[in-house]
Amino acid sequence: MPSQESSQRLTGSPIRSRISSLMFAMFATMASLYVAGRLWQDAENRVYMIKELDKRTDKGQTAISVDDTLKIIACREQEKKLSALEMELAAAKKGGFISKYSTGNDATAKKKKLLAVIGITTQFGRRRNRNAIRKAWMSTGAALKKLENEKGIVPRFVIGRSANRGDSLDRDIDVESRQSNDFIILDDHVEVPEEISTKTKLFFSHAAETWEAEFYVKVNDDVYVKIDGLAAILSANLDKPRIYIGCMKSGEVFSELGNKWYEPDWWKFGDGKSYFRHASGEMFAISQELAQFVSINRSILRTFAHDDISAGSWFIGLDVKHIDEAKLCCSSWSSGAVCAAG
């Protein structure tokens, strides 16, 4: 037995010795790399300062002062920070700040600043309405492109995707979009009536990220628009920042379930149950700064049952100029109006 134990000790001793040698070699390698890295960094600093010294010597200066040395080092540190920030910015853009929504063939959407991007909210099964709009005021093909180039106005139908992704509803819209090239398809939005407020928010977000325009306009797909009249109203307000233009109104908040205008969050509007001032949802416009605000904060902006109430709520706490424009009261059929609801 003693001989066996002695044999085991003799056998284990070389193994432990080899492990210790391996660990020591790894530690020595890591230490060498660390020292080499520090020496390389110091060498870079010395080369940089020698170059500065050569420059100053040529100008008659014989040495770099302590202050100058510190400034050089500080500059190099700032360069490193700037490089890191640029990398973070690139990562942020890659992480989703750039729009994820499809836009058809609008590859040159950012050529110049437009007057307005008009989003016509539509639904499945409303092709007849869309065709009526194309014939009445939106135009198609070359005329649609001419509207953009000459008047700086880009109208697009806005729609989401079917709850049964890829079904006949989606396929029909895809075919129509390829034929007309006048859609914004919100790929991440499910097209259901109760999500109209979210849809409006996503339209403003997408449009602000895709086109640089003075104004972004939301219109229903049963509204007739006089393009020249709308352009005149918007152009008259170009010098005003943070503009919210529409047929301003307020009214009763309906808390009765089953009412057409039922508001599930009715209790949030106080005991008086009255809405704050907001633009009618048939048609309203917001300036670029407000559209950018919606785009940046879309994940935390509250939505209510109706998109006009939701849009009005987004701007309550901001320094926004509300413009009550009677010509945008589409349901009144008043003389001089630039829109009419069907």
Automatic annotation (TrEMBL):
It is a single-pass type II membrane protein. Pathway: Protein modification; protein glycosylation. GO terms for cellular component: Golgi membrane. One of its GO terms (molecular function) is galactosyltransferase activity. The chain crosses the membrane at residues 21-40. It is found in: Golgi apparatus membrane. Keywords: Glycosyltransferase, Golgi apparatus, Manganese, Membrane, Signal-anchor, Transferase, Transmembrane, Transmembrane helix. The keyword Chloroplast does not apply. Residues 17-94 form the DUF4094 domain. Its EC number is 2.4.1.-. Gene3D superfamilies: 3.90.550.50. Its cofactor is Mn(2+). Its main location: Golgi. The keyword Manganese applies. It holds the Pfam family Galactosyl_T. Belongs to the glycosyltransferase 31 family. This is Hexosyltransferase. It comes from Chenopodium quinoa (Quinoa). The gene is LOC110722644.
